[in-house]
Every structure is written in C-alpha cells, then in structure tokens.
Amino acid sequence: MPKPANPTPDFFGYADLLSDAERAELASIRDYLESEIKPLANTAWERAEFPFEVIEKMAKLRLAGYAYPEYGDGRSRSELFSGFLNLELNRIDPSFAVFSGVHTGLAMGSIYGGGSQEQRDRWLPDMAAMKKIGAFALTEPEGGSDVAGGMRTTARREGGTWVLNGAKRWIGNGTFADLVVVWARDTADGNVKGFVVEKGTPGFTATRIEGKIALRTVQNADITLDEVRVPEANRLQRVDSFRDTAAVLARTRGGVAWQALAVAMRSYELAREYAATRVQFGKPIGSFQLIQDLLVKMLGNITAMFGMVVRLSQLAAAGRDSAEQAALAKAFTTTRMRECVAWARELFGGNGIVLDYEIAKFFADAEAVYSFEGTREMNTLIVGKSITGHSAFA
C-alpha cells in the first residue's frame, strides 16, 4: 500500500523546534488570518488599494507589539516564533506583511533602537496598538543601493529646530502614516541622523507611486521635504551615524529572508493543490513525472531556505548573528524563491496568469521581495568582503 501524501512544505519539520505553546499560538493566528485577512487580499491587490479595515483586524492580534514586550502584551516571544509569524503573514499576502513589517520592523524598530526612553514611551504604545502607523523614509530617487554615500536629504539645525530638505522614494505606508522616520544628513557634521516627522507637518508631501506590478496593495510614496521643521525632541537621540541606520536594516534583512521562504512555500502549496486537482489526459497532472520534478525542485529549495533562516534566528536569539549572515540569507533565499515561483507559475500553465488562482500575485510580488532590503548583488558584495577581506564596492 502506498504511503499517504505528505503535502507540507516544512518537509523536515522545522516547526517542531517551537514549543507546544508557540505552535498553538501560531495555529490560532493562522486561523484568524485565514478568516479575517485573506478575504481582503486579492481584491485589494487587483485594485492597488489599501483596505484600511485590515489595520483594526491586525490590531486585535497585537502583532505590532510582539517584538517589543513592554509595549505589547508583556510576553516575550522567541526569535524563532517571530520568524514563523512572518511566514504566516506572508502566506496570506505579502503586501499586508510588508505593511506590517514597515510599521513594526522599520519604523518601530528605528524608534526602539535609536530613540531615547522618553521617545520610546511617547510613540511606541500607540504604534504597538496600531493607533498610529509608521513609515521609514531612507531610499531616495537618485540613491537606492548607494543611499549611504549618496544621501542628498539634508538636516540643518536652527536652535531647537531641525529643517529638513530633500526627497525620498518607495516609502511604504508613506501616503497615510502618522509617523515617518526620515533619515537625513546633518549639514554641520555630515553624519546621517533620524527624525520622526508627524502627519500634517508643513512642507511634507507624500504622493502615491502608481503603476506597480508587485506588492500592489502597499501604498509606496514619493516624499518631498521642503523646509520641514522638526523639533529637537523628534530627533532620534541615540542615532549618530549611518551605522545606526544599517543596524535597523540588518535586523529586518533577516525578516526578508523569512518572507522569501514564505512566498516560496505558498507557491509550492498552490502548485501542489493544483497538481492534485487539475486533470489532463484522464488523470491528475500530479501523476506526471515532469510535474513531480517541478514540485521536488521547489521543495528542495524550500528545505534549504528553512535551514538557513532557522539558524539565523537561533543565532539572533543568542546575540551571535551578523550583518554578513543576514546578507547571505537574504541573497540566497530570494534567489531560490524566484526559482520556486517561476516553477509554480509554469505548472499552472495559462491559469497561472489569472489572479483567481493566486499564483500570479505571488509570482509578481516575488520581484519586489527579490529587490528590496538590498539587491542580491549588494548583499553578495557584503558577504564577499567578509570572506575575502577585500571590498569590491565601487
């Protein structure tokens, strides 16, 4: 008698490394996301609109407070749990996960890591409850990979006030955020500093970027700063240079590796389900050798990705992770993800380009995940310098 099918993409059982309580909590979150969040996903993606009711639904889970227990429910979760939570959000919809990640990881992470205790206490409780939504403004129109050296946005001090001038691009949540963490170069000492710009500040303009083919639900903005005046109390007090900005990015880069795994996993799940139900030549296409070959290649990629991100989370929990390890994880997982979504779309044939089958969305969204938080090339150079001792940056 043949063995029963093993459909899980977690083929080696990495979820078994979680505690029983963590697995139970994740199962509860998964059920809520499936019933409350997923029904909003495809329509929002197709219309390129953000359904603001999703904020209230996410707030009920207190997801934004998980990484900051003193501002959440007081319970500390493991790094590994955070990774699996990332998986669950992205399996539902990468756009919603990016909204959450920008708010929680980048905006709240900048304030938590770079702000004074007073600043943390002032902003993070409302952000953890999603009463105020954050954004993170680093990338510029003329500076993507070279944003550190090529940052043109400036900050000049006038007494107890800072005056910001410049432009930012690709700012997730930028059109509606209540608090935007803006990174600018101090005209006095040349160092990069962080500033929290509050909604409604004169001179701050955010315009939605139109015509995207990926992460369409995410409201990316072009931002202009024209003599925007920010009080010294809104300058992140523990940020002294771009190294502090890079520290935030290093933490979130590991999260993107988990995101890439999630996109690959969901693509595999969709492909396997389709292979089991799509009948051609009188039998399910999953019985054909070439289809099984595609599924096995996808599963191999996913298993390798799992090993890398799980170990990265374990190292982070022990305080032994490095920016170079996060860079390698991001470069490797996003490359393998790209292969997986392409194989999955191929398996669907013509149906793979129709949103009804969902794979088209993940195929398109993968291109954004592949590019942001440092391109594969830039992350490769970070790792290359680590292993050779020579910088190949131009």
TrEMBL record:
The keyword Flavoprotein applies. One of its GO terms (biological process) is fatty acid beta-oxidation. Pfam families: Acyl-CoA_dh_1 (PF00441), Acyl-CoA_dh_M (PF02770), Acyl-CoA_dh_N (PF02771). Residues 20-130 form the Acyl-CoA dehydrogenase/oxidase N-terminal domain. Residues 135-228 form the Acyl-CoA oxidase/dehydrogenase middle domain. Its cofactor is FAD. One of its GO terms (molecular function) is acyl-CoA dehydrogenase activity. InterPro entries: ACX4-like (IPR045008), Acyl-CoA_DH_CS (IPR006089), Acyl-CoA_Oxase/DH_mid-dom (IPR006091), Acyl-CoA_Oxase/DH_mid-dom_sf (IPR046373), AcylCo_DH-like_C (IPR036250), AcylCo_DH/oxidase_C (IPR009075), AcylCoA_DH/ox_N (IPR013786), AcylCoA_DH/ox_N_sf (IPR037069). SUPFAM superfamilies: Acyl-CoA dehydrogenase C-terminal domain-like, Acyl-CoA dehydrogenase NM domain-like. Residues 247-387 form the Acyl-CoA dehydrogenase/oxidase C-terminal domain. PROSITE patterns: ACYL_COA_DH_1 (PS00072), ACYL_COA_DH_2 (PS00073). Keywords: FAD, Flavoprotein, Oxidoreductase. PANTHER family: ACYL-COA DEHYDROGENASE (PTHR43188:SF1), ACYL-COENZYME A OXIDASE (PTHR43188). Belongs to the acyl-CoA dehydrogenase family. This is Acyl-CoA dehydrogenase family protein.
